[in-house]
């Protein structure tokens, strides 16, 4: 069963980036035990990627000329004009996430849809009732302020913890279902 997933890392106090989009706090953990396996297993089941314009701009600034999602359809929500790297399957869009859900599902085929970020975009999916699962790596640092994990307008119903595991360097991976009863193995 195809799922819409928010696979993300956040600080202990619930931020995915500093106020200036600095990820140095997270990048210091590159190569932690279990991290590559978790990511590779996750990506093997992804057929479509959806991201916000700020996330896309960050990738273009920090990985110039190297599109990390080659071979996977990607949709970028943005109000700015961007160019796609050569060979990247990227469609730039604007509007409500619900307007494009059929496109995302078709692009993903039998695989899952990954909402890369940012948190505002993931919150739009959640508020529209479209987000199935949050796969959260809790990084053992406190930022104090920054871009929130899931800046929703109100509380959610209780989420269902589908799985948890310890990874290297004190990182904990949590899998929460936003629609309890759904199969977390899909």
TrEMBL record:
Q: Name one Pfam family in it.
A: RibD_C
Highest taxon of source: Bacteria
SUPFAM superfamilies from the xrefs?
Answer: Dihydrofolate reductase-like
Q: Where's the Bacterial bifunctional deaminase-reductase C-terminal domain? A: 4-172
Q: What is this protein called?
A: Dihydrofolate reductase
């Amino acid at each position: 069963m195809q799922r819409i997933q928010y696979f993300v890392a956040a600080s202990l106090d619930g931020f995915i980036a500093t106020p200036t989009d600095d990820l140095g706090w997270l990048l210091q953990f590159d190569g932690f035990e279990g991290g590559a396996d978790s990511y590779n297993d996750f990506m093997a089941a992804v057929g479509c990627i959806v991201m916000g314009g700020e996330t896309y701009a960050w990738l273009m600034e920090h990985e110039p000329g190297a599109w990390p999602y080659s071979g996977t359809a990607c949709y970028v929500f943005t109000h700015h004009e961007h160019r796609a790297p050569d060979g990247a399957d990227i469609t730039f869009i604007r509007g409500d996430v619900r307007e494009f859900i059929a496109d995302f599902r078709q692009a993903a085929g039998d695989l899952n849809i990954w909402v890369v970020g940012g948190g505002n975009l993931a919150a739009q999916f959640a508020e529209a009732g479209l987000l199935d699962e949050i796969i959260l790596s809790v990084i053992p640092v406190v930022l104090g302020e920054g871009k929130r994990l899931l800046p929703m307008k109100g509380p959610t119903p209780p989420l269902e913890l589908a799985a948890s595991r310890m990874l290297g360097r004190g990182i904990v991976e949590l899998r929460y279902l936003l629609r309890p009863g759904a199969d977390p193995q899909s």
